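Technical note accompanying the year-one report. For the benefit of new consortium partners, we illustrate the data format agreed upon in the data management plan: each record pairs a sequence with a structure-token string. No post-processing was applied to the example shown here.
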Amino acid sequence: MSVKQVKNRKGNGAVATPVSIPAKDAPAVEVALSRSKLYLLFSWSFLYPDDDEFLDYLQSGEFVEDGQSALSDLRKALGKERGEAFHDKFDSISRHLDSIEEWVSSECSNWSLQDLRDEHRRVFSNVITLDCPPYETLFGNDHVFGQSYTMGDISGFYNAFGLQLSRDIHERLDHLSVEMEFLHYLSYKESYAILHDGAEKLLTVVEAEKKFVKEHVGRWVPLFAGMLQKKAKYGFYRFLADLTGDWVACEVEYLSVTPQPYSETDYRPASFMSPEGQAFECGAQDQGNELNLLMDEVGAQHYVDKDVKAPDSSGNS
């Protein structure tokens, strides 16, 4: 699936098929779906804007609307079980979304695509910026072999679930957008497993979420978010930095994992060299078919690279 297409559903006549969810499973399914929607927002937000889609999404108010809706659904589904301190983080995330809404109204409403591109370049530049690089392997690895090991581990997670990188968006597999999209996929898969797959497969998915947040996102994203705050200073990417930092903190607590986050003294980036003849691109692609219904339910498009043979129709990952 290509994240840049998530909102490309206006006027296509698609109607979501209603899903009957047992009452006992409804809260858990809602939590998984709401988390997935938020991860998808983050994933799309960090991509370079190739066309008007994301700008339209911001200017129409749908970005904030979808974010607030998912956050509200998540809060309701969790109830009081997480305690007041946990829900205070939701309040903080909601305020960051309000800030984006105010920024859109006051500044972004008259922006062109070039304005958004210029803002992305200002923060992330045309080459890999060392001020706030959105690439995991530039954190905590002062040697190229360390980067290769981390890249291989990330690739192993994707391969374990039958995912590969889309050719539509040219980014590396350690880009924050790709990692967020992977967690979006896992959260969807969790909701499906609750309804259809049973306890064993559900445990496999949840354990993958926990491990990926503990060993990857929860380690480097907090430092990255702080660096992005300093670099962006104002505007959309500053608010996105605030959102990202708070959301990852929520996920760490929700999943009950204890990452060892990098500190500024751990940031010793080496120059990454891709294996000869290999390019990394963005957009984890679902090669199975078991998530079609849930993807359609929230309007997300389901894309499969036509050049790659899909797995058998059993839906096995």
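Partners are asked to follow this layout when depositing records. The chain has one domain: 3-8+22-297.
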